[in-house]
Write a structure and sequence with these properties.
Number of domains: 2
Largest sheet: 7 strands, mixed
Distance between the termini: 29 Å
Number of helices: 6
Structural class: alpha/beta
Strand order of the largest sheet: 3-2-1-4-5-7-6
Bound molecules: S-adenosylmethionine
Length: about 180
């Protein structure tokens, strides 16, 4: 299990404690210290997730469950994970909490998904947003199967989340996603 953002361990207590083993990160050192106290046997590190994915941190470990629950947009972190040259499991389940699915505005934070719309303002329907996100997944981040897009009731109210399944054929030999390798 790779839990990209330890945070306050809310998801860990609800769900991820069921994982046989795992690693977690957070840029906030105090949260990592508290996370380590709650996660016996887990590897708990402080660091910036995007920078860490660009380096050798656990790149030999083929995580088969990946949780990306950042504040706001999950897409830059999914991109960093998918485009890194890591060992890959035959099947990987990826959960993305999507903090801006609810906002659906073309704001600056949407840069990763909508590079052409950078700096523009405006609204977008949920269906349009989902369509663009699915297209970006197919063409840029390894063509996973989209298992679900759900609305969750969680710690901070309602959230939307994606559940994706990456299979071995999503990856090149060096472990990065096929789609970007072909661009
Ligand atoms: C939504 S919270 C995570 C909540 C956590 N899943 C839980 O259940 O409590 C987001 C966390 O991401 C951390 N964070 C935000 N950007 C980060 C980055 N670039 N690298 C590492 N941690 C980051 C924040 O410190 C915060 O603890």
């Amino acid at each position: 299990m790779l839990e990209c953002f330890a945070g306050e361990s809310w998801l860990y207590r609800q769900l991820w404690h069921k994982a046989a083993s795992g690693a977690t990160l957070d840029k906030d050192r105090n949260k990592v210290i508290r996370a380590a106290e709650e996660r016996p046997g887990w590897a708990c590190y402080a660091g910036d997730v995007k920078r860490v994915f660009g380096g050798p941190w656990f790149d030999w470990r083929a995580f088969d469950v990946v949780d990306i629950d950042a504040w706001g947009s999950p897409w830059p972190f999914l991109a960093a994970w998918a485009e890194s040259s890591r060992a890959r499991a035959i099947d990987t389940l990826v959960f993305l909490t999507d903090g801006y699915a609810g906002k659906v505005s073309l704001a600056a934070r949407c840069k990763t998904l909508f590079p052409a719309a950078s700096g523009q303002r405006g609204q977008m329907s949920m269906a349009e947003y989902q369509g663009i996100a699915r297209q970006a997944l197919r063409s840029r981040w390894g063509d996973p199967e989209v298992l679900a897009f759900v609305r969750l009731r969680g710690g901070a109210g309602h959230m939307r989340a994606w559940a994706l399944r990456y299979t071995a054929d999503c990856w090149t030999e060096n472990g990065s996603c096929r789609a970007s390798a072909h661009e």
